[in-house]
Design goal:
CATH class: Alpha Beta
CATH superfamily: Gcn5-related N-acetyltransferase (GNAT)
Radius of gyration: 16 Å
Strand content: 25-35%
Number of strands: 8
Structural class: alpha+beta
Helix content: 25-40%
CATH architecture: 3-Layer(aba) Sandwich
Distance between the termini: 33 Å
Strand order of the largest sheet: 1-2-3-4-5-6-8-7
Largest sheet: 8 strands, mixed
CATH topology: Aminopeptidase
């Protein structure tokens, strides 16, 4: 697996209608606004997005991402549209250098739901993980009841591999989770066709 610390801090990845940009301090206001808008939707599954979320939380998260990337983890991007509006976030984390694998997570602000933002971002970041970072496997793990996240994984081309009992802890509650695997070959097929074949 290639060294994450060598990535330029201004790295930007292009996807159809989207730009994935490594988090920058200048994104703090946009992140705060997007999180506050999405407490009732994103917050159900991601406890960091809560009613007490402040701009200082956004600043702290961005700084942690920048500090951690220097040590190789995580590899976190804001998702922006062509007009520069922040739509959400996507990241590779939990890297296993020996097995050349990582976890991939994502969230989309409430106003951008239903526009296939996350599947486009997931496919682009996965391609970067395989082609540039040298990964051979990416996992997406979503709570069993998080149907929107599971649908995104399927639309991105990931394959359902099973249910992990108490695989996630949301807040303080262990929950069962659906585990999806994404391999380089999965990106060679149209994502929608794969999703239809699995249903």
């Amino acid at each position: 697996m290639n060294d994450l610390s060598a990535l330029p801090v201004t790295l930007q990845l292009e996807a159809p209608g989207l730009q994935l940009r490594l988090w920058q301090p200048s994104h703090a206001d946009a992140l705060y606004e997007a999180a506050r808008e999405s407490i009732s939707t994103v917050g159900r599954w991601l406890p960091w997005c809560h009613a007490g979320y402040t701009r200082e939380h956004a600043v702290g998260w961005i700084q942690r991402c920048r500090d951690a990337s220097e040590g190789g983890e995580p590899c976190a991007f804001g998702i922006f549209n062509d007009e520069g509006l922040l739509l959400g976030g996507v990241a590779l984390n939990r890297f296993d250098t020996q097995q050349r694998s990582a976890n991939l997570g994502y969230w989309v602000r409430e106003r951008a739901h239903g526009r296939s933002v996350a599947p486009r971002a997931v496919r682009r970041l996965a391609a970067f993980g395989f082609d540039t970072l040298g990964l051979c496997r990416i996992e997406i793990v979503a709570a069993v009841e998080n149907l929107a996240s599971r649908r995104c994984a399927e639309k991105a081309g990931a394959r359902f591999e099973g249910i992990g009992r108490h695989r996630l802890v949301i807040g303080s509650t262990p929950v069962d989770a659906a585990v999806y695997g994404l391999l380089p070959a999965d990106l060679d097929q149209p994502a929608e066709a794969q999703s239809s074949a699995m249903s």
